[in-house]
Amino acid sequence: MVSSRTDPPEAVLFAEEAALVTTAVPKRRQEFTTVRHCARLALASLDVPPAPILPGVRGAPVWPSGIVGSMTHCAGYRAAAVARTTACSGVGIDAEVDGPLPEGVLDLVSSEEERAHLASLAESDPGVQWERLLFSAKESVYKVWSPRTGRWLGFEEAALTFDPAASTFTARILVDGPFETLTGRFLIEDGIVLTAIACAA
Q1: What's the pLDDT tens digit per position in 126-182?
Q2: CB 166 within 8 A of CB 121
Q3: Which segments does the entry list as coiled coil (predicted)?
Q4: 5 assigned binding-site residue
Q5: CB neighbours (10 Å) of residue 74?
Q6: Do residues 168 and 139 lie in contact, with contact meaning Cβ atoms separated by under 8 Å?
Q7: What per-residue confidence (pLDDT) applies to 59?
Q8: 73 labelled ligand-binding
Q9: Alpha-carbon distance 167 to 164, whole Å?
Q10: Is 148 annotated as a binding residue?
Q11: Is the whole-model pTM more than 0.90?
Q12: Which residue, 122, 114, 119, is CA-closest to 138?
């Protein structure tokens, strides 16, 4: 994985990419540019030459043949992770600013069972924004699911639990598909919540 907390001046876009953000506000264009810069650095570590990274099905990035990957960005953070399909069948990463979710969002993205689980976690570790962590983990789940299936996965279609001691989470997928469960890791550092899933080939 390659990450950046700044927007380096050497980060540039291919013409095909730049065409997608011609009307974007500067902040959006910077995020779009830097996250692709991170992706190209990550691909270079696998000896993959630079190429445009364009959106495909449901906005997921289209990676070079034989590559799986994921990109994420939030205020003050951009990152990309890639792997060869011989080593990994899917990658999902997400970054969020560490803080509470906006009012009402938790009810939209979680089940009653998940909210009870988060309440229990908050009792033992109130310093963690468990609601934000749940949201991020579900985003990572979706980023693995969507490229593999070409289908939407609703927030209610994955049931998550967290293991704070191991800094891991498990998602039980509640619809038919290539995965019954997905397991990922989480990290909260320097004001950023990070979640990641890598599926074995």
Answers
A1: 999 999 999 999 999 999 999 999 899 999 999 999 999 999 999 999 999 999 999
A2: no
A3: none
A4: no
A5: 18
A6: no
A7: 85
A8: yes
A9: 5
A10: no
A11: yes
A12: 114
DSSP code for 19? G
Q: How far is CA 81 from the centre of its chain?
A: 9
Q: What is the mean pLDDT of the chain?
A: 97
Length of the chain: 201
| Rounded Cα gap, residues 46 and 18, in angstroms | 24
Which element (helix H / strand E) includes 32? helix 26-44
Tokens of 171: 């998602």
For residues 161 and 117, is the Cβ–Cβ distance under 8 A? yes
Annotated ligand binding at 16? The verdict is: no
Are 155 and 109 spatial neighbours (Cβ–Cβ below 8 Å)? yes
Strand order in the sheet with 67-74: 2-4, 77-84, 67-74
Beta bridge partners of 160: 171
What is the Cβ-side half-sphere exposure of residue 27, based on CA atoms within 13 angstroms? 5
User: Is 139 marked as a binding-site residue?
Assistant: yes
Tokens representing 138 are 């579900």
Give the amino acid at 54: L
Burial of 198 per CB tally in 10 Å (0-12, 13-18, 19+): buried
Number of Cβ within 10 Å of residue 178's Cβ equals 12
The per-residue pLDDT for range 14-54, each reduced to its tens digit, is: 999 999 999 999 999 999 999 999 999 999 999 999 999 99
Helix (H, G, I), strand (E, B) or coil at 26: helix
Q: Is 153 annotated to bind ligand?
A: yes
